[in-house]
Specification:
By secondary structure, the chain is α+β, with helices and mostly antiparallel strands. Helix content is 28%, strand content 22%. The protein is built from twelve helices and 22 strands. The strands form four sheets. Strands 5, 6, 7, 13, 14, 15, 16, 17 and 18 form a nine-stranded mixed sheet that branches. Strands 1, 2, 9, 10, 11, 12, 19 and 20 form an eight-stranded mixed sheet that branches. α1 links the parallel β1 and β2. α1 packs parallel to α5, α1 crosses α8 and α2 packs across α8.
């Protein structure tokens, strides 16, 4: 019997699992994919918003501002890539009233270190912006972060401190009998006193499983956003996160340096029906380029290294996070976690604890709780650290990913961390191999070879990402004898 089962291994569920692992509770975290951070968490802008955008008095506003502050302490503690670069909302003369409205909203939300810049004040810190921009809201507390690293840090520490993780656990039914829930996936049943629904795009379907009257539920509408990810050469174009003045369609197309030094441009916002539609289309990319050109015309899109899309979980006719105990006793929703969900994520855990305390859960400290940072990237080490690491393990002296300077030692270590690493993309999320200009074109085959060796599997077993994305389908004739591969 578990005290709590958390459904969803994105950054929301992982943050909650991490917080609960500090206490003597029996907790399980279940995820339908073969890794954490596999859906919305891995495919967003990576922006930690300051908190001036959400409507004052909402849960979204409260947790955005709190979460943004928490990143400053947690990211360095976990060795997560994070940079407090600040943001600008830029506008022209006709946008002045809206920019000032955001500024006053930020003051109401208690966002710190904001100011209004005009004219040359803007170009002094962002010289590559278009010259017709006349006003900007400058928020120094905004930042950029690696979302999947933060999720991994939460999840790995949760597992190290006693949380049971179930991967490839797609919930097919939930039944309630008296004061217990029975959560089922492919014949495996978990019994629990309480459920926290952090299932992202599928939070509505999970909630429907426990409702007698489906009209008491809610509907998740996926909103797709496409992106350009450009080479580090283009990351030099801007120094901050650059937002356009928001419209009814959203916060507009942003241009930002990432925490790894690349340039990210996007997203658009298209409401779709298919929760598994991650395709990118040419029309959307043309729109993003046209919109970004209103901010700066200095971007060379020939240096684009990848396009991708992410889906945000918007609740139909509801403009806040839906968080709290539901109409079903013992069932808690963390649903509709759209932007600024990443910014608020560190605050989700403490907020879940408050909710559980209000429901009568007793929290006794886990005396064995300990924080283990993520391994430091080889390329971030000093010369002395590199030499010491190679002395410990000679595999650190062999570079596999040349674009991102990732060593074989890092890849091997990533395969033996607390959460199973079952795909090449899972390796990428742990040590950045394949994130560079060639996008794994050179290092991908070598990583496959390392996985075969270290995990004692065949090439046919290695996945690119999700279940079913096998890289090798059949062997060709000739070459090495198949049994030797």
């Amino acid at each position: 019997m578990y005290d709590v089962v958390i459904i969803g291994g994105g950054i929301t569920g992982a943050s909650i699992a991490y917080e609960l692992s500090k206490y003597k509770l029996k907790v399980a975290l279940v995820e339908k994919e073969n890794d954490v951070a596999c859906v919305t968490t891995k495919a967003n802008s990576g922006i930690v918003h300051a908190g001036y955008d959400p409507k004052p008095g909402t849960i979204m506003a409260k947790l955005n501002v709190l979460g943004s502050k928490m990143y400053k302490e947690l990211a360095p503690l976990f060795h997560v890539h994070y940079s407090n670069i600040g943001s600008l909302v830029v506008g022209r003369k006709e946008d002045e009233a809206k920019v000032l409205e955001l500024y006053h909203r930020g003051l109401e939300n208690k966002v710190e270190d904001m100011s209004i810049l005009r004219g040359e004040e803007i170009f002094k810190i962002e010289p590559n912006l278009n010259k017709d921009i006349s006003i900007a809201l400058y928020a120094k507390s905004a930042a950029v972060v690696s979302p999947w690293e933060m999720c991994l840090a939460f999840a790995e520490n949760a597992v190290r401190n006693g949380v049971k993780l179930y991967l490839s656990f797609k919930v097919t039914s939930i039944k309630k009998e008296r004061d217990s829930f029975f959560v089922e996936s492919n014949g495996t049943i978990l019994k629990t006193k309480m459920i926290i629904n952090a299932a992202g795009l599928y939070a509505d379907e999970i909630y429907n499983m426990v409702l007698d009257n489906k009209e008491d539920g809610f509907t998740i509408v996926p909103v797709k956003g496409d992106y350009y990810l450009l080479d580090k050469e283009e990351g030099k174009n801007v120094n901050h996160v650059i937002f356009q003045t928001p419209t009814k369609l959203g916060k507009g197309v942003l241009v930002s340096k990432t925490c790894h030094g690349n340039l990210i441009v996007g997203p658009n916002a298209i409401t779709i029906e298919d929760k598994e539609d991650f395709g990118v289309d040419e029309k959307s990319l043309d729109y993003i380029r046209d919109m970004a050109n209103l901010t700066t015309n200095k971007i060379n899109y020939r240096n684009n290294i990848r396009n991708f899309s992410g889906l945000r979980a918007k609740i139909l006719n509801y403009d806040d996070f839906l968080i709290g105990e539901s109409k079903v006793k013992g069932f808690i929703n963390f649903a509709g976690i759209k932007s600024p969900g990443l910014s608020a994520a560190p605050a989700f855990g403490p907020y879940a604890k408050e909710i559980l305390e209000g429901m009568g859960v007793k929290f006794v400290k886990n005396e064995d709780f300990n924080i283990t940072p993520l391994p430091k990237f080889f390329k971030d080490m000093s010369i002395d650290e590199i030499e010491e690491k190679i002395k410990e393990n000679e595999l650190y002296g062999r570079i596999i990913c040349r674009c991102e300077t990732v060593s074989e030692g890092e890849i091997v270590d990533s395969l033996h961390r607390p959460i199973p690493c079952l795909s090449i993309d899972a390796v990428k999320r742990r040590c950045n191999a394949g994130m560079g200009r060639c996008q794994g074109g050179f290092c991908g085959p070598k990583i496959l070879e390392i996985m075969v060796r270290e995990l004692h599997v065949t090439p046919k077993d290695v996945l690119q990402d999700k279940d079913g994305s096998n890289i090798v389908l059949e062997y060709t004739k000739g070459g090495l004898a198949h049994e030797e591969i």
